[in-house]
């Protein structure tokens, strides 16, 4: 029997015609982000999870590092209601912290690298943070002193540092040692508890802090997975962005890792025009880019006669694009045998990532953001 239509798209959901019954009826995950990560990677333990300048990690090794991070955080009193502040570049420790904080029941407040000292202190006071994780090259003596004298931060963990100046500041190795051999109490985390404090882009005024929980992250990934996008365990996903935003944390960290992909962590090219060489060297199946990097690929002489058919998805966000830009990108994709559509959509920090996406040829139209995600 056909469903009676009401004429209200929000009720009739005509976009569901782009999804299979299996995708529509797939049960939503209701668990912590770390539990979801482990559930989705049962059997993937020996696959490579992270490829970075700071080391490579299999999923088995990733789980171990998360557990060690959580144990150390627990010893420093991190639990429900506590907020951990971090300002890190693209490195595996971001993932260790994100999931490690999740295990303890606490929440993570990430800052974009290169935040000035006064803004770091402002954030530490705003969130009443007791811990601050950063990279040794970002932690100046002036910032270290200001954080201790102007905020309630008790300890700074300086990742990459061989030794520290202030006795309250510790290296990453010293931090991990705090939890070695010390069991954690049994924690019952509610997936509705605060996990991540994401800053909005400030497009409508002063940037705000949006409170996201485990369900926000898991259901966002669930919707990507239950689409026409070709995601497979073992695929290579290149990440150029620190996880200081909700989109970066969901679409560039939790999504590829929850699918069993190899998360290739690379610093944003110092010279943007070198990005084409990075693509040729790494040969990723999945890219999440800003329009300027697509311009680099389109105008690259190094890619002139290259077959890029290994690229399965190529997303674009961060800035609006024009119809002319889309037409040029589509022509580039076709010329280089890329069997994918430009992954462009609409979303906001409040729903963690895209609410609508172009995932099928039928949902691609110049100027369109595609169809709403399945749920």
Could you give the topology of this structure?
Layout: H1 9-12, H2 21-25, H3 33-40, E1 48-52, E2 55-58, H4 59-75, E3 83-87, H5 92-104, E4 107-111, H6 117-126, E5 131-135, H7 141-150, E6 155-159, E7 169-171, H8 172-177, E8 194-199, E9 209-213, H9 214-225, E10 236-239, H10 246-259, E11 262-265, H11 275-282, E12 286-289, H12 291-298, E13 313-316, H13 323-335, E14 342-343, E15 345-347, E16 354-357, E17 371-372
Parallel strand pairs: 1-11, 3-4, 3-5, 5-6, 6-7, 10-11, 10-12, 12-13, 13-14
Antiparallel strand pairs: 1-2, 8-9, 15-16, 16-17
Helix pairs in contact: 3-10, 4-5, 6-7, 9-10
From the alpha carbons, calculate the radius of gyration and give it in angstroms: 21 Å
Helix fraction, binned, reads: 25-40%
Q: Approximately how much beta-strand content do the residues carry?
A: 15-25%
Which strand order spans the largest sheet, edge to edge or round the barrel?
2-1-11-10-12-13-14
Structure annotation, total helices:
13
pLDDT below 50 for ≥5 consecutive residues: which ranges?
A: none
Shape: globular
Strand segment tally: 17
Would you list the SSEs in sequence order as H and E? HHHEEHEHEHEHEEHEEHEHEHEHEHEEEE
Termini Cα gap: 23 Å
Which class do the helix and strand fractions yield? Answer: alpha/beta
Instruction: Please outline the major beta sheet.
Output: 7 strands, mixed
Chain-averaged pLDDT: 94
Q: What key phrases describe this protein's structure?
A:
about 375 residues, 13 helices, alpha/beta, five-stranded parallel beta sheet, single chain, seven-stranded mixed beta sheet, 17 strands
